[in-house]
Design goal:
The protein is an alpha/beta fold. The protein has one domain: 3-Layer(aba) Sandwich (Rossmann fold). The protein contains eight helices and seven strands. It has a seven-stranded parallel beta sheet with strand order 3-2-1-4-5-6-7, with helices on both faces. The longest helix has 27 residues. It is globular and about 50 Å long. The protein binds NADP nicotinamide-adenine-dinucleotide phosphate (NAP).
């Protein structure tokens, strides 16, 4: 699928891996991130256009997406969080922040991009990010599981509403070695123990999720919409031998 792809959360592990992958196959990424210095460095590395925006500020987010241009081949919303706390310590603010960052930001980004995605020859594609925790229960995940389940609701609702012009899918990773997962992966013993819980016994890398996102943004995925696909070493569906 030729044409420009907006990558929101471009300075993150998955966002930057996806932007590099798109650039390598000759598809121009339009980079959106909140940290101007890191965003500028990535934009210079890839020779890609960029816009600074905090996804928690709807007007700025919409302006950044609109600045990407009147025709867009795709949009990947890679911003997100993994706030982990037991229910007794979760505040109203924790739930609202998780929802605003993971669900509302994604919905408003797609809304801002809708005219440009619909204008793409052959149609546009959206990729959102859920989590294994949306469908499999893990302690201390209430705020993020609820938010990511909301992302999965967006995938089917927007997939139906925006068809046939725009395809909408999501990637649902298990634990990957990226910035937001650092509290869980920094301790080597803990990381190894979690890795062994996966039938394919390692932790994920940003490239694992970026590879599926790039495929879902490509013409090869032209008859796929409304899907949430795991990139999880088999953890969500297979019993581990370990
Ligand atoms: N890593 C995992 O284990 C894992 C597991 C399940 C699901 N996921 C999901 O996968 C997606 C990609 O995450 P990742 O693994 O690549 O983590 P990451 O490397 O920490 O990237 C997260 C990105 O979100 C951006 N972000 C956070 N708050 C923002 C805000 N208010 N405005 C703009 N950008 C904001 C961060 O910006 P900065 O670069 O400025 O910090 C960063 O670029 C997320 O949706 C995440 O929830 C990840």
């Amino acid at each position: 699928m030729a044409g420009r792809v907006v990558v929101i959360g471009a300075t993150g592990g998955v966002g930057s891996a996806l932007a590099r992958r798109l650039a390598a196959r000759g598809q121009e990424p339009f980079l959106v991130g909140r940290d101007a210095a890191r965003l500028g460095a990535l934009a210079a590395e890839l020779g890609a256009p960029s816009a600074v925006a905090d996804v928690l500020e709807p007007a700025g987010l919409a302006a950044a997406v609109t600045a990407a241009g009147p025709v867009l081949a795709g949009l990947a919303y890679c911003a997100g969080s993994i706030p982990l706390k037991p229910l007794k310590r979760l505040t109203e603010q924790d739930f609202l922040e998780a929802w605003r960052l993971n669900v509302l930001g994604a919905a408003l980004a797609v809304q801002a991009a809708q005219p440009a995605l619909a204008a793409a020859p052959g149609g546009g594609a959206v990729v959102l990010f859920s989590s294994i925790a949306a469908r499999q229960g893990f302690a201390n995940h209430a705020a993020i599981a609820a938010a990511k389940a909301g992302v999965e609701g967006l995938v089917v609702a927007l997939g139906a509403e925006l068809a046939p012009a725009i395809r909408v899918n999501a990637v649902a990773p298990s634990l990957m070695r990226t910035g937001i997962a650092a509290p869980l992966t920094a301790n080597a013993a803990m990381a190894e123990a979690i890795a062994k819980l996966h039938p394919l016994p390692r932790l994920g890398m940003a490239e694992d999720a970026a590879g599926l996102a790039a495929f879902l943004l490509s013409e090869e995925a032209g008859w796929i919409s409304g899907q949430v696909i795991g990139v999880d070493g088999g953890r969500a569906t297979l019993r581990s031998k370990g």
